[in-house]
Amino acid sequence: MSSSSSDWSSKKVCVIGAGMAGLVAARELRREGLDVTVLEQSAGVGGQWLYDAATDGGDPLGMAGVHSSLYASLRLNSPREVVSFSDFPFHPIGGGDVRRYPVHGELLRFIREFCDVFGLMDAIRLDTTVVRVAVAPPRRDGSLRWTVRSKHNGDAETEEVFDAVVVATGHYSQPRLPSIDGMDKWRRRQLHSHSYRVPDSFAGEVVVIVGCNVSGKEVALELRRVAKEVHLSAKSTTEALTPSMSKMLARYDNLHLRPLVEHLCEDGRVVFDDGSFVIADAVIYCTGYNYSFPFLETEGKVTVDDNRVGPLYEHVFPPSLAPSLSFVGIPAKLILPRFAEVQSRWVAQVLSGRRTLPSPEEMLRAVEEYNRAKEAAGLPKWQTHHLFLDLEYCDEYGERHCGFPRMEQWKKELIWSSISDMRDDIETYRDDYHDSDVIRDGRRLHGWPPSPPLAPRPQEKDDDDDRRRKAFSPSKFSLR
Ligand SMILES: Cc1cc2nc3c(=O)[nH]c(=O)nc-3n(C[C@H](O)[C@H](O)[C@H](O)COP(=O)(O)OP(=O)(O)OC[C@H]3O[C@@H](n4cnc5c(N)ncnc54)[C@H](O)[C@@H]3O)c2cc1C
User: Fold this and answer.
1) 129 lines ligand 1 (CB under 6 A)
2) pLDDT tens profile 199-243
3) What percent of the chain has a predicted confidence (pLDDT) above 70?
4) In the chain, at which end, N or C, are there fewer CB atoms within 10 A of the end residue's CB?
5) How far is the CA of 350 from the centre of ligand 1 (A)?
6) pLDDT confidence of 9, banded at 50, 70, 90?
């Protein structure tokens, strides 16, 4: 048993970040009777979903501090039924966008409603940036405490001491850029998808998009309407040639699939590694994001190494600093809100003393075993926190750590069919889907209104979810 056994009731907990993860953490911590303060750098709650028209203008490769990476036209890529929290469904609201995959502003409305319903706003300090988190002198019983230094708007920095800190700062804000020969000398426009908002300024241009995951494809589809040519560059053109990509290429003459960019030339040429080239006006990097915790001082006890945050026991607790330091929302390639709720409940139960953690040595051993297993499976370090939508793992995780109920079968089927539809046709899957009986019954039983009538499909497809599940390959799916 670790230090988690000490009496945590009425202890002060600081949650950093008021995105979906930080907000659900605040709710769970309060439910366990803890005294919660949420510090949020933005002027509102919502995190990524607080759309920001600013684009890191002076620094289009994206290091200038804008948090949200949403572009103006973005619609959710996961069904609203599964973006919900376990006891707070993201039901369509009258007057809003009632579609299954609504526009991003709809999710922001839902998040604000979540705050209102659970009375969270009085715990949240907006416009407050955390600039330093470091170990404070310990309490008399030896347990760790944390000094949190923050800055409210233009005010002087202030310091407070907390018994625990929950880091929920998200990980889709710091661009992960490839290293391409000539990038530093290329004088035309280069930006990361983090800084892409609207297509207008690309009208008539030749654009190269590096990266063919969801963002790359969606930005390409938006740009091809106004641009002269759009070239999508993939690590492997064979792997990139999914049914969805084939359809995109067949539909639009000005959309092209290209291999890896080999180098950029000062005269505007973008040379691909098969020797072909285009003269481009802009390069957009849709190449993902890095984890970053610039405020955290742990004397090397928590590091970020090639996107591995660690060591973190079950992606949450750094063994030598647990339970007073924890992270919620680290995993990627899953539908986060519910999993962040699971992690939050676990953290809250540990901090309130209802659950204990293994010893630091055991936690460290578990982290090492987990990393070894990932490596043995051939996964690179930067994918340490990718869960590849392993819903069974998520269920077991929740049951094991905090008695969280398993996800209902109809929701799982909805996730599988959504991913399968997306892989089949990324342009139409949001508005052209056919629910199985299991999904239809599940929705009805859980109070979801009937889905709006949908346009007939261009081609016949059966609705056998079993077939879809078999065809679904977790290692290949793309999800942010
Ligand atoms: C383009 C895009 C599309 C996406 N689409 C989907 C989708 O369709 N479905 C889906 O489920 N997920 C989607 N996601 C993933 C989405 O980010 C997560 O669902 C979820 O919003 C992450 O919540 P979070 O609270 O972990 O992080 P965030 O939403 O990023 O919130 C972190 C919060 O921490 C604050 N913060 C950061 N640093 C500090 C600091 N030093 N001091 C104080 N505050 C700080 C930030 O301002 C922010 O409010 C998408 C992501 C992107 C980028």
Assistant:
1) yes
2) 999 999 999 999 999 999 999 999 999 999 999 999 999 999 999
3) 90
4) N
5) 24
6) low
Structure confidence at residue 479 (pLDDT): 53
Q: What's the 107 CA to ligand 1 centre distance in angstroms? A: 12
Q: Please give the CATH topology (third level) of the domain spanning 178-287.
A: FAD/NAD(P)-binding domain (3.50.50)
Tokens of 35: 């005294």
**CB-ligand 1 contact for 223 (6 Å cutoff):** no
Sequence-ordered strand ranges (E) for 254-365: 255-258, 261-264, 269-272, 277-279, 282-285, 289-290, 296-297, 303-305, 308-310, 325-327
pLDDT tens readout for residues 310-347: 899 999 999 999 999 999 999 999 999 999 999 999 99
DSSP symbols for 398-424:
HHHHH-PPPPPHHHHHHHHHHHHHHHH
480 lines ligand 1 (CB under 6 A): yes
Q: Determine whether the shortest distance from the Cβ of 47 to ligand 1 is under 6 A.
A: yes
The residue whose CA is least distant from atom 21 of ligand 1 is: 48
- Do residues 230 and 223 touch, judged by C-beta distance below 8 A? yes
Mean pLDDT over 89-98 rounds to: 89
Distance 85 CA to ligand 1 centre (A): 15
User: Would the CB of 115 count as within 6 Å of ligand 1?
Assistant: no
Average pLDDT over residues 27-49: 97
Question: Which residue type, as a one-letter code, is found at position 2?
Answer: S
**Residue 405 clears pLDDT 90, i.e. is over it:** yes
Where do the domains of the chain lie? Answer: 8-55+68-173+290-402, 178-287, 409-476
| Atom of ligand 1 minimally distant from the CA of 48 | 29
Inform me whether the pLDDT recorded for 465 exceeds 50.
no
Give the residue carrying structure tokens 């370090």: 381
pLDDT of 1 > 50? The answer is no
Positive or negative, the CA dihedral 82, 85, 91, 94 is: negative
Structure-token match 């700062």, residue found: 169
- Cβ 367 vs Cβ 315: under 8 Å: no
Computed over every residue of the chain, the mean pLDDT equals 91
Domain 8-55+68-173+290-402 is of which CATH architecture? 3-Layer(bba) Sandwich (3.50)
Coil/strand/helix, residue 165: strand
Q: Do 8-55+68-173+290-402 and 178-287 agree at the fold level?
A: yes
